[in-house]
Amino acid sequence: MDATTPRQSPSRSMKVRCCIVGGGPAGMMLGYLLGRAGIEVVVLEKHADFFRDFRGDTVHPSTLQVMDELGLIDGFLKLPHQRLQTMDGLIGGTKVRIADLSRLKTKYPFIAFMPQWDFLNFLREAGTRFGSLEVLMKTEAVDLIRNGETIAGVRARTPDGILDIEADLTIACDGRHSTLRERAGLSAEEIGAPMDILWFRAGRTPDETENLFARVEPGKMMVTFDRGDYWQCAYVIAKGQYDTVKARGLPALLDDVVRMAPVLKRGIADVKSFDDVKLLTVAINRLKRWTRPGLLLIGDAAHAMSPVGGVGVNLAIQDAVATANLLAETLARGCPSEDELDAVRRRREFPVRMTQAMQVVVQNNIIKAALKGGDRPLKIPLILRLISALPWLQGIPARFIAIGVRPEHVLSKAAPLS
What we know:
Blueprint: E1 12-21, H1 25-36, E2 41-44, E3 58-59, H2 61-69, H3 73-77, E4 82-84, E5 86-91, E6 94-100, E7 111-113, H4 116-127, E8 133-136, E9 140-147, E10 150-158, E11 161-172, H5 179-183, E12 188-190, E13 195-203, E14 212-217, E15 220-226, E16 230-238, H6 242-248, H7 250-260, E17 278-280, E18 285-287, E19 291-292, E20 295-297, E21 303-304, H8 312-331, H9 338-372, H10 382-389, H11 395-402
Parallel strand pairs: 1-2, 1-11, 2-8, 5-14, 11-20
Antiparallel strand pairs: 3-7, 4-7, 5-6, 9-10, 10-11, 12-18, 13-16, 13-17, 14-15, 15-16, 18-21, 19-20
Helix pairs in contact: 1-4, 1-8, 6-7, 8-9
């Protein structure tokens, strides 16, 4: 949409240095970092709150380190959360240890399980001390504003009508179904995933304790997370088979679940209908180009991750930190050039590719084999047998999952508070 020929006259307009679209982990962290740097920035979130049916809630040591570097860690860890240090699996009836985070030489050697809405609300509240940061809820970006070939901001829908936001730089953090990506004409390279996820909760009582993380049987796989007063469950199905599972009926699904995880026997009554079961369509993709003049895409908008390893939130946070590190100083003076914007892709593409490659290996060697089913017993891959048998090896997958490839540290400067 050209700025001089709008489709619908805006009821309001505003101008900022940077407009961030999407109030997820990437958007809220980047908004905080740019606000901290004294840059006039607005974050748009289309919903009235951060509560969602499915949002990743694993906060890894790499993100905990970022929170520490920002001086936020003490307050953050006071929020209700559970901690995970060891990741154990049951494959074909044999228990294996996948990773041991206690072996990591890091300040926070654990994964914190915390509802993502608590994390995002915490960042929003912490950011209120920065006068240059504004978060607009119930504000949905519906189009780009263009000035010739340059992106000059976004048009947003609000409860009070249309709002035009002129911005020197627009950053799309609006997820794997990014509106701004589509409006900018950028397409993702699809890598593919053999599975989808059924996401649901089962009640938990204090006497129900189990350290198993993943369960794999011929034709079936599921993951369970102890969330204090409930079990968060991810039941893995073959890609595109949701209708088939649904046709079998809810009792058949829940019978399979309880057979795999007897600890859920009492709490599974919380799943009363398929309305309590949310389908997560798994995708792995990435953009070849993350920019247009005046526009940058990061997080899921630039690269959708598989749930394998639960790393999506943390990759998004790393993108945000790298973006602030590379662009904040230049952005304080005006819009970075497209080559300067592309420095973010050049910095982050290697970690993304390496992480996605790891996810594809797990998909092809464990998940796809498990979902094939059949009567033949599952064979535990050699690498998992070695990791489980040799404790010193358990720090390797732990580091890959918890720290990641080329972790980012906060280098952007904080402006004096007025």
